[in-house]
Amino acid sequence: MGDILSPEEIVGVVRTTAKKKADYSIKKILILSFLAGAYISFGSLFAIIVAGGTPGLNDDYVGLQKLLLGATFPVGLIMVVIAGAELFTGNTAYFMPNVIDGVQGVRPMFRNWFWVYLGNFIGAIFVAYFLTYLTEVVAHKPWLDMVHKIAIGKTSNPFYKTFLKGIGANWLVCLAMWLGMASKSATGKILGIWWPVMAFVTIGFEHSIANMYFIPLSIFHGSSITWSDFIVHNLIPATLGNIVGGLLFVGTLYGVVFAKK
Fold first, then answer.
1. Contacts made by residues 68-72, CB under 8 angstroms, sequence distance 24+
2. How many Cα atoms are found within 13 Å in the side-chain-facing hemisphere of 247?
3. pLDDT digits (tens, 9 = 90+) for 128-185
4. Under a CB-based contact definition with an 8 Å cutoff, are residues 86 and 1 in contact?
5. Does any domain span residue 261?
6. Which residue, 179, 165, 188, is CA-closest to 237?
7. Is 206 helix (H, G, I), strand (E, B) or coil?
8. CA-CA distance, 119 to 54, in Å (whole number)?
9. Which own/partner pairs from 66-70 qualify as long-range (CB within 8 Å, at least 24 positions apart)?
10. N-terminal to C-terminal alpha carbon distance within the chain
11. 3-class SS at 183?
12. Model's pTM, two decimal places?
């Protein structure tokens, strides 16, 4: 198919990638996952600056403001894929084709998830506190209003709604990773990643790693949201939804179709 891999070839790349990830040392995982958490946070900050700097759109063109938020956010995932980093949400799908085929067990998958999730959290908090809060990049209106608006919206939903939004987010994120793998050129990878990620952010789905930046940033800036609110009302249901979205709807379904057994 020229410069574009077929769906079956994409799964082949995923399977090879999963084998490599299983052999990473904890040190390597933590470094690469710290970078991924930071990259997603940079994309989140970029989105806040652009969309938050257009408060008038929220009154008359709220859809356009959401589109601006979505159109700028994918920068983070593009850096993760092209520069190379370990992102928890993407990794929820990678291991399943091999697990289904019996090539890998679930232990390497859970090992990877644990350390990557921890590293992503550290990277996101680092950017939120040291590079955003202390530098006062969003400390004033209209950006601070956007920071609090996002955090309040993300912690105000019932468990089931955040869980379902988490499924939608990572279904699209993992498809973005799949599309990125399909292309052999940097331009093709960028375009493949951009559209699904822009869609999930514009829709308002929940991405656990991005929320590790968005909500703590609001807390650092004096929000009434507590760390307990963040963890219980968003991070846990969003994470569980992300796992289902990536593991089931991308990794498992494509694994079932293209597994050898």
1. 69/201, 69/202, 70/197, 70/198, 70/199, 70/200, 70/201, 70/202, 70/203, 71/198, 71/202, 72/43, 72/46, 72/47
2. 15
3. 999 999 999 999 999 999 999 999 999 999 999 999 999 999 999 999 999 999 998 9
4. no
5. no
6. 165
7. coil
8. 33
9. 66/201, 66/202, 66/204, 67/198, 67/202, 69/201, 69/202, 70/197, 70/198, 70/199, 70/200, 70/201, 70/202, 70/203
10. 25
11. strand
12. 0.96
User: What average pLDDT does the chain have?
Assistant: 95
Determine the Cα–Cα distance for residues 211 and 41; give it in Å rounded to an integer. 9
pLDDT band at 31 (very low <50, low <70, confident <90, very high): very high
Residue 165 DSSP SS3? helix
**70 found inside a domain:** yes
Separation CA 22–CA 123 (nearest Å):
21
Q: Is 4 helix (H, G, I), strand (E, B) or coil?
A: strand
Inside any domain, residue 239: yes
Q: How many domains does the chain have?
A: 1
Amino acid of residue 235: L
Range of the domain at 213: 7-256
- Return all residues near 30 (Cβ < 8 A) that are at least 6 apart: 115, 118, 119, 122
Structure tokens at 46: 């970029």
Written as one string, the DSSP assignment of 32-52 is: HHHHHHHHHHHHHHHHHHHHH
Coil, strand or helix at 226:
coil
Kindly report the CATH number assigned to the domain that includes residue 234. Answer: 1.20.1080.10
pLDDT bracket for residue 20 (50, 70, 90): very high
Read off the pLDDT band of 57 (50, 70, 90). Answer: confident
